[in-house]
Amino acid sequence: IPVVALVGRPNVGKSTIFNRLVGDRVSIVEDFPGVTRDRVYATGKWLGNDYRLIDTGGIELDDQPLMKQIRYQAEIAIDEADVIVMLANGQEGLTREDEVIASMLLKTDKPIILAVNKTDNPEQRMDIFDFYALGLGEPHPVSGAHGTGLGDLLDQIVASFPKDLATHYEDTSIKFSFIGRPNVGKSSLVNAVLKEERVIVSNIEGTTREAVDSKFISETGKEMTVIDTAGIRKKGKVYENTEKYSVMRSLAAIDRSDVVCIVLDAETGIRDQDKHVAGYAYEAGKGIIIVVNKWDALKKDNDSFKDFTDKVRSEFRYLNFAPILFVSAKTGQRLDQLSPLIEQIYENRNRRVQSSLLNDVVMDAVATNPTPTDKGRRLKIYYMTQVAVGPPTFVVFVNDAELMHFSYKRFLENQLREVFYFEGTPIHLITRERQ
Ligand code: GDP
To answer: What GO terms are given for molecular function (predicted)?
Structure first.
């Protein structure tokens, strides 16, 4: 889906506009800090068009002088985005920094939209004509404080989405990525996997937005693509070493993946940072494998597997459906199991189940575990049907949605998992009322 980057010098109101554009989406996974609260990357929707928004100002480069930071932001926008929104401040007027940003942006062919913030009243709206001088076309007046002008801005953004975006992604291979902290062994894993497999194309520079993806054929003849997580191969630009940038690129890689391998380091154990991106992959409904790397380096005893497994299960409770694979990129241990597992999860994630079978499961479930009651009313389940794959999504029609308690929903999900074997994929269960 299209990526929109927001650029602008400090104090133009980027984060206010960012929050206005994406709204207050509340995360369903509460136990991963960072990504959602302090957002630089989020999903928005306008007139049925999904898009991703990046706030380049959120990528901190503290020890850099202002002009450099501004240049990096423009570079990030040029590298990452399909559409760039440059934000200026109507109350302060046109500044030197604005001109620097505009001149950098003018070097790209990507569509650029100029928005002038803090234009809260009609007089201020007159002043925005100064901003034509930036050479970016018509300035769009907006107000983050009042929320005005944003609809027009969004119309303009959506109208600028590249028309051929779909063909960029027209590729039926199974896409997966290695996601994790620096030094857990992501690039070693990519290299080790590619060494084992019949590689068709490696290092296809510029496949999508500077990404370096590699395609290979698995044992069973399936085309698979390892999605590049930025920072894996190209480490160079200053901003590539900042944590927020690498998190943001990880999120972009997750978006493009069918299956995400969350890589943990057996030596250093589980850190908070490991949970940020895992939570995002879960919310995005991706297939998930937990890959414990550097298993060779661990001093092991009889309980090592169990101990590490227990730790993973208690730290990543919401990922209890995800298989855990203990590997070594260094020795190649168990890496042969990786692509078959990815294929299996891909299949599970795209499995379609007949309604008649679903309703058999519902009947059995209700027979073994009676539906909850509240104030003399009992939950009645009429019917269940699958409405989507990738991830499998089910709608269950009931008499009163409020009677569907969290624990009962969990129970139904677990029944579906057991009967239809949805290992490695999240499943969504939506409750709908029917009179
Ligand atoms: P990335 O930052 O996640 O891409 O991590 P790298 O692939 O660059 O690996 C970081 C360090 O861990 C390097 O020194 C690797 O040689 C080492 N490393 C990676 N995988 C393994 C492994 O399975 N076993 C051991 N012992 N070391 C590993």
So the answer is: GTP binding; ribosome binding
* Ligand 1 lined by 229 (C-beta under 6 Å): no
Helix, strand and coil content of the chain, in percent to the nearest 5, comes to 40, 25, 40
Among 178, 186, 187, 188, the mutation site with the greatest number of ligand 1 atoms within 8 A of its Cβ is 188
Q: Give pTM, 2 decimals.
A: 0.78
The answer for 433, left when phi > 0, alpha when psi is -120 to 50, beta otherwise, is: beta
Summarised one tens digit per residue, pLDDT across range 242-280 is: 777 777 788 888 988 999 999 999 999 998 878 878 888
Angle at 104 between CA 148 and CA 57, to 5 degrees: 50
Q: Is residue 177 lining ligand 1, measured as CB closer than 6 Å?
A: no
Q: DSSP characters for 4-34?
A: EEEE--TTS-HHHHHHHHH--PPPS--S--S
As beta bridge partners, residue 226 has 176, 214
Distance from Cα 182 to the centre of ligand 1, integer Å: 9
Domain 3-165 CATH assignment equals 3.40.50.300: yes
**Single-letter residue type at 371:** T
CA of 186 to the centre of ligand 1 (A): 7
How many angstroms separate the most distant Cα atoms in the chain?
Answer: 75
Domains 3-165 and 171-349 share a fold: yes
Q: How far is CA 290 from CA 5, 17, 59, 209, 327, in A?
A: 31, 36, 28, 27, 10
- Interatomic CA distance for residues 92 and 155, integer angstroms: 26
Å from CA of 364 to ligand 1 middle: 48
Domain boundaries, the chain: 3-165, 171-349, 355-433
Question: Which ligand 1 atom is at minimum distance from the Cα of 327?
Answer: 23
Residue that has been written with the tokens 């894993």 in this structure = 189
> What's the CATH code, domain 171-349?
3.40.50.300
- Evaluate: CB of 328 within 6 angstroms of ligand 1: yes
Cβ within 8 Å of residue 11, ≥6 positions away: 89, 92
* Token pair 């999860």 in the structure block, residue: 345
Give yes or no for residue 329 CB within 6 A of ligand 1: yes
Residue with tokens 């794959």: 389
Tell me the CATH class for 355-433.
Answer: alpha beta
The answer, yes or no, to whether any atom of ligand 1 lies below 6 A from the CB of 232, is yes
- 183 CA distance to ligand 1 centroid (A)? 6
Structure tokens, 361:
């499961």
What is the best residue among 177, 183, 187, 296 to mutate for testing ligand 1's pocket, by most ligand atoms within 8 Å of CB? 183
